[in-house]
Amino acid sequence: MSGPAMNKKLIFTLSAALLLSACDSPPAQPPLSEAPLAGATIGGDFTLTDQNGKKRTFKEFDGAYRIVYFGYTNCPDICTPDMQNLMAGLKAYEKSHPELGTKIQPIFITVDPLRDTPEVLKQFVSAFHPRAIGLTGTEAEIADAAKKFAIYTSRVEGSSPESYLMSHSQTPYLMGPDGKPLALMPADVPNTDANEGAPNLVEAELAKWVR
After folding, report:
1. What is the structure's pLDDT at 11?
2. Looking at residue 9, what is its pLDDT?
């Protein structure tokens, strides 16, 4: 085969290859300026104590993306499933994007510092991700951090002084390398059949904003 017929076949082959290449490429990421929480006054520096008893500040993680979740280890129906989904999604993202995955630091901040000691947090966060950091502090330190991150929290008294619950906002944040908010991570809505915070949704949200 030669001449015009050969040229037509070559053009067709190249066009098909380019089309397949375009179909295989991932969707373009939106600019960070278009992130849902871009420009919001959420976040700020704090000093808390990690699961190893070490003082940590929020600012020391500058340069890394941060998944920040406020909860508590005695939470009966929200915090554990949320952490399972968030950390499973992060692990999936780390597997599909090894280099970018290392740029994400998961942080769990307790809203129940009376019971969530460093020792308790160490056992809790290690069950979900090997790099997860659990933070606690005095009631005043936790209240200050919660206020900066627009987290509502209040104590709900139980049948005994030890059996209280903590009412709190269910808002897992994705914070950028500059410490400013980018988006709310997917979280499951209690008492619904669908899992709105499923790991694949978490992974997709990370793929949208981490670069």
Report:
1. 47
2. 53
